[in-house]
Amino acid sequence: MSWLSPKGEAWNFSDQNTTVQSTGDDFSLGSVPRSKRMMGWLSITNITFGIATAIFYLQMGSVMALQFGAMNAIISAVYAIVVAGILGTIIAYLSAKSGMNVNLMSRGGGFGYIGASLTSFIYATNFIMYCALEGMILVAAVHAFLPTIPEWIWILIFGILVIPLNWFGIKQLDKLQKWSLPLFFIFLVAAITMAFLTPSVYGGAFWTYMPDGLQVGGTALLSCISMQHGIMGLTPLLASDYARFLNPKDTKFGIFAIGFVPQIFCFGVMGGLGIWFGVRLGEANPGVYIVLLLGVWGVLFTMLTQIRINVTNIYSGSLSLSTFFENVLKFTPGRHFWVVVTGVSAIVLMLGRITDHLELLLTFQGVFLMTWATILVVDAMVIKKIMKIGPGYYEYRQENLFKWNPVGVAALIIASVLGTIAAIGFMGGFLKSTAAFFASILAAVISVILAKFTNGKYYVKEEASGIDKEDYIR
Description:
It is a multi-pass membrane protein. By secondary structure, this protein is mainly α. The chain has a single domain (2-471), classed as Hydantoin permease. It contains 17 helices and two strands. It has a two-stranded antiparallel ribbon. The longest helix is centred in the first third of the chain and has 44 residues, at 102-145. The protein is globular and about 70 Å long. The two termini are 29 Å apart. Residues 1-24 have low confidence and may be disordered.
């Protein structure tokens, strides 16, 4: 059977391994056909720079350096690059092989179709939350420059602006990120130059800065790692939304570029610059020091970076909501509908002052996302590949799936609950700072035990035929 896309292009869906419903060129409800995986690794890596260039990473670096010392912040950044890079590379590989994002991979990757729906919904709320947080950074910067205009007006303006920028899917995202990336680097170089010309408030080399009473390592380092956990689970999972379009000939090199380059830029370049800016200027908020350094151009710089990241947040959030409501309620209005819902939800959170609850949100988010990513990686690399349990491909079609697979669902619930308890502080100071890592290890062990105990019984009702052998991960 073939349908016509909105662009008048025929899509063939006779192959069982392609999606039955898609929106434009996004294939939000099924696998991307191999004939549609035509994007080069450079284009996809460029799209992921939308999140990598967020000012939020500058702020994280500045806050960690000023509170816990520059060297502790630098060590935690290296840790984040390595862990998130490994997870991101594996997930990008799985996505490129199967043509699916993490929402769809979760169905056949240990969760079942209802179990995966719950992860999709929580994943969507994370993107909505991020959209609101990034939006508030922009609103604060513009409002500081033009205080006569109420904040709620800026919230509406910038909240609505990102909705039409998402209307035409991944190809529009690629174009937006391509033309805006050079502008970003021009503004960034200008800010660095102006900071060099501004006398430093700290007399020594920036990496030697250490608040009184602290030292390299110990509680200060663990505190930095804990802060990194709050955001480092997102970028590996995000890679799958775009790696599924990767041209098969680019897979070998492309998965490393998609997996590691965004992490290097997020935590290494942006986080590192945040450390330098924070120590040199004695200010943790980039919304303040970028505007002080560049004036009205600083406002434009902030606007550019936050629009870039929020376009990406809206796109991924809309895909996750689409998956959830299609699975649970059979409600399939199309991705455009969910783009609007995601954008409006972010506006509501901004109006509700989401930044007042930032620490609690990042704590839960870090535990959940790291745990989920770990389960997907362990399911593919250990349970499917080494233990030979379950099918060697990802099944996403409901008629072939059980509603629940205890392997992933039980592991996620148990590990997330215990990880959150640890993060709150009920299991001691060490586990409080390493709660996300603790939850990830716990989830890995539980999922392997449950897979062995159930012997893959709940992965698929029956093995499917007609799956392209190139889409097998085993």
